[in-house]
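Hi support team,

I submitted a single chain yesterday and got back a structure, but I'm not sure I'm reading the token output correctly. Could someone confirm the output below corresponds to the sequence I sent? I've pasted both exactly as they appear in my results page.

Thanks,
R.
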Amino acid sequence: MPCEKIGGGRFSYEYDGRVFAPSTDSFLLASFAKPRRGDAVADLGAGAGLLSLLLAARDISLRF
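Hi R., thanks for writing in. Yes, this is the structure output for that exact sequence:
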């Protein structure tokens, strides 16, 4: 199973090649999102949760 290390290696994202392989879209959306420290965020209907993991890697104070 492929594994991507993100967040300076604090998190890993494992996926099988059949569904929801990471794409540029997830990484772009995570870079555009600008939650404030301590905000609550939701990743609804956005695939396999990579967006939440990318945001958590950027700011551990976020609530999910």
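A quick pointer for reading it: The first helix runs from residue 24 to 32. Let us know if anything else looks off.

Best,
Support desk
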